[in-house]
Amino acid sequence: MCVQYITLMLVVWAVTVAVGVLGETVVVGHATLPIDHHDTSMGTYQNRYWVNDQYYRPGGPVFVHDVGESNAEHTAHRYLGDSSSYMVDFLREFHGVGIAWEHRYFGNSLPFPVNLTTPFEQFKYLTTSQALEDIPAFAQTFRHPHAGLDLSPRTTPWVIIGCSYSGARAAFSRDKHPETFHAAYAASPTVEAKNNDIMYFQQVYRGMIGYGYANCTRNLREIVQYVDNQLSSGPQNASAIKRLFFGPGAEYNTHEDFASALATIYSGFQGRGMTMKNPILPKLCDYLEHNLETGDSALARELVLKLGSEALTQRFASWAPLIGIINESYRTNCAGKNISVPLSCDLSQSRYPDPALISWTWMLCSEWGTGVGPNPMPDSIVSKYIISHDGRNSVCNVQFPGAIDAGALPPQPETNQLNWATGGRHVHPSNTFWTVGEFDPWRSVTPLSGTRTGEANATKYVLPHAEHCYDFRTTSPSARIARKLFVHNLRVWLSEWRPM
Ligand SMILES: *[C@@H]1O[C@H](CO)[C@@H](O)[C@H](O)[C@H]1NC(C)=O
Ligand SMILES: *[C@@H]1O[C@H](CO)[C@@H](O)[C@H](O)[C@H]1NC(C)=O
Ligand SMILES: *[C@@H]1O[C@H](CO)[C@@H](O)[C@H](O)[C@H]1NC(C)=O
Ligand SMILES: *[C@@H]1O[C@H](CO)[C@@H](O)[C@H](O)[C@H]1NC(C)=O
Ligand SMILES: *[C@@H]1O[C@H](CO)[C@@H](O)[C@H](O)[C@H]1NC(C)=O
Ligand SMILES: CC(=O)N[C@H]1CO[C@H](CO)[C@@H](O)[C@@H]1O
């Protein structure tokens, strides 16, 4: 399992952030919250949030953008401080107050310091259910930062918005705390916890076909089959195929680490699809397809059929950018590309030093499930070896050595317990607007896996030609439709709200 698919949930807008022209109107606040909502003797910590109240008029709602599993500072300024953001649009339209909320154990919202030496017991309060109590506790005493007006849910309708894990949190929040949240916008809501989701790459596969890359998927399937045959046909062939791709020394990697490294080619899909902003997959496809002499793709295909999958695999392995991509992701020097440092091509998992990744990995290892599995034959576009077959959960063991043996982490993430506690894919609160991207790799763990594309239902919308968390992008046409539908619903829901 490589870092791309563990960080994935929110690393979707690695695009340049516009400078917040309204930056000075965003104020940061700190809420004092119990570390343990069930036992106040554990003490309190400070949870960070940001507020923009410049569009507020009495009677307007409070919008909370729940940032989820990252340091929220960047997102807070992007959504609250940028006059062209979706949030500022909502604030203007409804004369609301906007809040960006940082999740406990992320950024500066730390019950305990998070780093590689954090004792396991200090992660005890990093649970989905504890985190679901944080905003409701904060909301009770929330006041207009300048005018001091009571803006708690007793006097003001609250609306929670999120995507991916925080999209699931939006739905769960409305479900568990209807007294706090009057409405929710759940975008790409990954409500179902799951280990080794085999539909992830199936969606990538469907998306590639949807975007006109069917031939490329055929090529990649043939390559994957060839690679898997070589990996399973004795140590000599296995070593040879690893060296073919990543040079001398690559043979010391396990099948799992090697196969996961190859799957890096799909890492840009969920955030960028097959557009030219995706720096890997479309370029690799073109390279595999095109006959260098004539530029004729049909001809290339014929050539491949004649030469067979071994030749095709060799062509992939000789794609010039590949080793650079791997060296960058894994901080290796495979094939000795950098002549000023020694050759090193160890593709094994190492510990993430980034605090947000440490906390998120803890959540995955304890509750949400880790990894994505190979999509089913005959459509497999990734090696069957991307999952380890030794029964041990290597990501969790590597990141938190000894935690499973000490009983601080379960042997396997307790996905069933979490789904039972949250409702998982059966969560169905009222006043909730649901969306997902047509080719979102995470679509199968949302409640919209069966919904038709573009179907403009009252409270559900599948964004055509979109992937993960496209809803808040100002430039996406289908996101604009989604937000319009939400606004339409929200007007009705707000008209039904009554103070307590
Ligand atoms: C790392 O975490 C430990 C335990 O929580 C804490 O005592 C220590 O100060 C932290 N180190 C840094 C550099 O923040
Ligand atoms: C190694 O691969 C070649 C080419 O696919 C195959 O002919 C050969 O049988 C394989 N060797 C073993 C030991 O399976
Ligand atoms: C896919 O390959 C077929 C030949 O096998 C060719 O006729 C067709 O033009 C190719 N499609 C694209 C989009 O390159
Ligand atoms: C080669 O590695 C050194 C040391 O890590 C680094 O400073 C340098 O930028 C690298 N060179 C290139 C061309 O990436
Ligand atoms: C809206 O969704 C419901 C259930 O999700 C479905 O039964 C119904 O046909 C949809 N309505 C429209 C107009 O698409
Ligand atoms: C750390 C390191 O050596 N990275 C290298 C990976 O490969 C690219 C190009 O192939 C080099 O430019 C990097 O220096």
From TrEMBL:
Record lineage: Eukaryota, Fungi, Dikarya, Ascomycota, Pezizomycotina
Family membership: Belongs to the peptidase S28 family.
Coiled coil location: none
Record keyword Cell membrane present: no
Leader peptide range in chain numbering: 1-23
Annotated Pfam families: Peptidase_S28
Protein name: Peptidase S28
Gene Ontology BP, a term: antibiotic biosynthetic process
MF terms in GO: dipeptidyl-peptidase activity; serine-type exopeptidase activity
Record keywords, A-Z: Glycoprotein, Hydrolase, Protease, Signal
Listed transmembrane segments: none
Organism of derivation: Penicillium fimorum
